[in-house]
Amino acid sequence: MKHFTKLTALLLVLAMAWCMTACSAPKQEAAVAEEKPAETETVKEPAAEAPAAEQPAPEPAEEPVELIVFAAASMTETLQQLEAKYKEIAPNVKLVFNFDSSGTLKKQIQEGADCDVFISAGQKQVNQIDGSKDADGGNTEGLDLVLQGSRINLLENKVVLCVPESNPKGIDSFDKWAELMKNGDILFAMGNSDVPVGQYTQQIIEYYGMNEEELANAGKITYGSNVKEVTTQVKEGSVDAGVVYCTDAFSAGLTVVDQATKDMCKRIVYPACIINTSKNPDAAQKYLEFLQSDAAMEVFSAVGFVAP
């Protein structure tokens, strides 16, 4: 009996030991599992974007240009009006105008004044500085100031007889004007002899067989150094009549009573050219091309200019 009891006790001890071992195994596995570092999930990097297409470099802004334009006084309003239009086309170009009689402008150019473009109200003044002309062609001093190949006939104008608004002498035509002039009954305004409008007026006076010098000595003629001065005298009523371009008469709102015929005076063509001392001949050429465009001609024709 004692032997059985000892055996039983031994079996119980072994059974308890096995149970304890079996129970501790999962805990150890769990501990091992806890100690084992978790596998990190691989994060896929986004694919690198293809480099953007290279943009073309912006065109460099054009260099600023100051373009000096010498133009007949009769072009004052139209060229100033066109200035804004040209600024849209050539924003880098600053136009600097010098308006005066063509004779005065020609003299200034001859004396060395900075000028890129010259627009005259008559061929005579450009002929005088054009090296392609000889003495018979009007270049009596042998001047060579025109850039060859740049000269164009830009516009044509007309000469008209104007009177003050009240027209106190009842002048309604060149014929009536000539009659009153011969009788010494009126005071008349005209341009100086070195001004194109004055030269055209001289031709009209000669056409009617009158002597300008005698009329001037008799106090029947007053003079203007450019067409604007003649226009002002008529508008203010300080004279009974005056001869100006139709474009100036339009701009000043004068009363026009007659227009000179081709028999009375020559065609009034406005030549334009680039001066060969110009610092900006390319810009000057582009400006002349603009003045011949449809957009510019629309402005010119609105005041009475026509294409030659």
What is the secondary structure topology, with strand pairs?
Layout: H1 2-35, E1 65-72, H2 76-89, E2 93-100, H3 102-110, E3 117-119, H4 123-127, E4 152-157, E5 159-163, H5 174-182, E6 188-191, H6 196-207, H7 212-217, E7 221-224, H8 227-235, E8 241-245, H9 246-252, E9 255-259, E10 268-274, H10 281-291, H11 294-303
Parallel strand pairs: 1-2, 1-3, 6-7, 6-8
Antiparallel strand pairs: 3-10, 4-10, 5-8, 5-9
Task: Please tell me about this protein's structure.
This protein has helices at residues 2-35, 76-89, 102-110, 123-127, 174-182, 196-207, 212-217, 227-235, 246-252, 281-291, 294-303; strands at 65-72, 93-100, 117-119, 152-157, 159-163, 188-191, 221-224, 241-245, 255-259, 268-274. The strands form 2 sheets. The protein has a 5-stranded mixed beta sheet. The chain has 11 helices and 10 strands. It has 2 domains: 65-156 and 270-303, 3-Layer(aba) Sandwich (D-Maltodextrin-Binding Protein, domain 2), CATH 3.40.190; 159-259, Periplasmic binding protein-like II (D-Maltodextrin-Binding Protein, domain 2, 3-Layer(aba) Sandwich). Helices cover 41% and strands 18% of the residues. The model is unreliable at 25-40 (pLDDT under 50). It is of the alpha/beta class.
